[in-house]
Amino acid sequence: MSVLVVGLSHKSAPVATLERAAVSGDTLGKLLRDVAHLPDIGEAFVISTCNRVEVYAEVHRFHGAVTGVCELLARYSGIQPGELTGSLYVHYEDRAVQHLLAVASGLDSMVVGEDQILGQVRTALRVASDNGTLGRSLRDLGRLALRTGKRARAETGIDRLGISLVRVGIEFAAAALGTAGANGRPLAGRDVLVVGAGAMSGLAVATAARSGAARIVVANRTRARAERLAAGVGGEVADLASLQDAIAAADLVISCTGASGLVVAEPVVRAAFGLRGARPLVLLDLAMPHDVDRAAAALPGVSVIGLAELRGSGGVAVGTEEVAAVRAIVEEEYAAYGSAVRAARVTPTVVALRAKAATVVDAELARLAGRLSEDGLSGRALEEIAQTVQRVVDKLLHAPTVRVKELASSPGGEEYAAALRVLFDLDPRAIEAVTRADVESPNVADQEGCQ
Questions:
Q1: Catalytic residue among 50, 70, 256, 450
Q2: Correct CATH for 2-156 of 3.40.50.1010, 3.40.50.620, 3.30.1490.20, 3.30.460.30
Q3: 310-331: per-residue pLDDT in tens?
Q4: In a designed cystine with 233, which of 140, 209, 402, 405 is the match (CB 3.0 to 4.6 A)?
Q5: Is residue 411 packed enough to be buried (19+ CB in 10 Å), middle (13-18) or exposed (0-12)?
Q6: Is 304 helix (H, G, I), strand (E, B) or coil?
Q7: Is residue 256 flagged as an active site residue?
Q8: How far is CA 399 from CA 158, 318, 416, in A?
């Protein structure tokens, strides 16, 4: 079987679509069981967050599995299949594994390197296990993803990229407001409005609070999420419908919604500026694509700072080295996984070969023992002969079996196993029996929780 991913994320779908597609609680359990019951799928888990909904499955047939998963996602989201298809992406086999490793490492997150996704992957595996849809293949793959994500954060600075971006952005904003370097509290006495309630917004709220902001207001399309974020710093909540008033009351607006279009339009800023008098206003746009209308920068007293300004100034590292280091870890873990999978595929052939050799040895020793016993040969001598024959067979088989495992770990290695089956005339039914027994036998690792 092969690994398949069907999903949508902040990179492929607008926020409204992601919100409708997200599943949790009992609904997530029902989706998992429905996916696992599809005729072309053996096991599955689902990662469902505010930024992505992805179905991972071990599949027998590609086209049937893709069609079945797409239909279920459309049904559970209430989005028409034709509309949902434009937001979906599909990864298969090697690409699916690489995608999961990138996701767990934070490379595919809206805030590159953020920590939340690692816990979300762990939760997805646990929920699938609780619902009986997680088998050995995806459990092992999930553990690989968690290990890769932990290595990425332990061995590189990838988890500091988002924090660095927000911190430096606030420093630039403070400079524009004339309060930079104020005893480590560059926003002391300033009112801050944060637009959005995702991971980057969370960093913005926390950093603004540490920077001494006098008042923090969070505005978001989903009020409940804004309330949770604001509550952590004793802040307030505003509706996007009254964004003009919220901007009028702020000195600094930090926008990072992840929306596909403009959130802070120039007419809204102009109207807000008319309500606030001559006080300067800074719009810090940390979204990709950008949230703030660049035309607002032409208004008197308004400064717009975006990712291009931050990165182009040299004030914040682009994170190229950290990202490259994480990609190297992902490639290393993926290569080791691929080698192990290819090597495992030849194991039934090796086992069947040794079983056939043992059968031949046993038959010949039985025939020889019958003949030599008539000549009065002692039992001890027969044991020595049997051990010698067995050692000869083991030595003859050692090189080809070790070599075929080595070759199998390389691309195209299955051809060597096929040659071994032909050369030794191995019964395909014997190999299939070994494979089936391996799948059905209990494994200690299968009984452990996801670490």
A1: 50
A2: 3.30.460.30
A3: 765 555 554 678 889 999 999 9
A4: 209
A5: exposed
A6: strand
A7: no
A8: 44, 51, 13
